[in-house]
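Here is an idea for our session: we take a single protein and study its fold together. Which protein we use is up to you, so please pick one and set it down. Once you have written the record down, we can walk along the chain together:
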Amino acid sequence: MQATAVEQQLWQSREWINLLHYYPDRMAESGYLSHVDDQHFFNATNGVNNPRAEMLATLAAFYRVDVDGNDHPICRFPARLRWLSEHIAIDPATLPKVACADYAEWRGIVQAEQVTLIFPTYHLNSPSSMFGHTLLRLDRSAGENDSKWLSFAVNFGANANAAENSMLYAVRGLTGGYPGIFIVTPYYNKIREYNRIEKRDIWEYRLNLTPAEVERMVVHLWELKEVNFDYYFFDENCSFRLLELLEVARPGLELTDEFGITAIPIDTVKSIEAAGLIEDTVFRASQVTELQLLLEQLSPDEQRYFEQLVTNTSVVKAAGFIALDDSRQQKIIDAAYRYQRYQQLTKVRDDALAKRSHTLLGLLNKYPTDDTPLPIVVPVQPEKGHHSRQVAIGAGERDDQTYQTLSMKMAFHSLEDNGHGFLRGAHINMASLALRANNETDKIKLQRLDVIDIFSLTPRSRFFSPLSWRVYTGLERQMTDGVDRLTSHVTAGAGVAYKLFDDGVFYALGTGRVELNRGFSDKRLKPAVGAATGLLWHFGSMTSRVELAGEKFSNGKYRSRLLWRHNIPLARNHAVHLSVTGENHSADRFVDTTLSYRYHF
């Protein structure tokens, strides 16, 4: 059998490469290296970087008699055995008689005929989820009426302590400080995590995999049980690993080839769509989305009853409440019950809160069941939004000096970008670089380098009080005593945002900044405190933002600026952007205007 494998050079087949998670590596003698960082996954001592040696060792391992039961390679690697049996005449009668009790039990539980890709939307308050997330759902059958709560979720993530500091998690996730593992868990656990606790809407994409392809994936999942992979937040992440699974399921797919630098979750959804894998799409609103919609349907008087009912269930006995139609009473009680449930998810268990919630449920059950669905407005599908990377060219003027600009960013979305498919008020940019060429001096300078730039504007209301915040750090030019200097900084702020009208959000933040500027007299780090207030306005496909901001440093230096950003989309991935900024840096005052063309790719 080994001779046959050598003669046919089977280890070079795409299916074998996929099963062992190899990728091209010029440094390896064989030209391949596996993403798996776990010797337990290999039968050959050099299997991690030698597909040929691993195939020959795997064939030999199937005939081992020094191990038995669940630890035998026949039990550990059923997908490899199945594939090799299809290409080499392996007589089952010649294999050792091994009882794979654990695998048999697992397969009895995890059964699937259909696979659905799940995309929980962006969650800015979690560093691990600010770009969204993807996982797979294994459905027992293709029947529309089957309960998805009985399905299993396939999730890949960093094997980290849940209580670990968020900033430490982000740093270690960027630098490969965690192993990554696959977990197969009941789907209702993920529904609770994403849709309820984290308050994230969910998109479901039913894939057109055949039952045989699904079976191939499920069998391979067993081989990945408790196996450590490399994990990197930007590329070898949750989404990249799921693409590898789909390549195992359907040989011939080449989904991972385009993700050599980054694998942003929504980009992998676009890749799956481009491959023709998506059969149907379903939007699942989060618990908070449904609650907000329900509250909007209440009149001002009904909202007052709702507020009272949340803290005092005896309000249902008030004459004014009794005078309402039963259908309106039911909506008020339903809203109060949902709000209580929402509070229970975000607080430590409160016995009084739980008791009121139980009472509200009892009151609600006295009314006929209302099966009328909430009129949820389904947003633009996230995969229909602009692509994640951006390059821009432009021209501008500052203090009667003209210049050209060239900029690019690796990811992902700015407040003023085309908002179709994105959360309004979400601004997430990583690795943004801007160069400027001065026409008078013929010099090219680094104007800005943002390592990370996150801005979250979440409007508050009578019933919800989210925090709006911003953090960004990197290098940027600041005028100091008449000299345009490149400074390094960390800037952060927090505050509030409110909806002024349907498409407009006003915000106000208190800010803090630490800056290293050679123009400061002692050339040391200086802290500053400040504020920023502005208006973000969407009208049609265009977006405008006006902001007034400033800060004062501990050495007495101060800055203030008034900026206007206006974005005009020309197409999904094309836009014209206007930026006008008036700045006052102690004794230095100027206006900077830039008009640029932006292309997302």
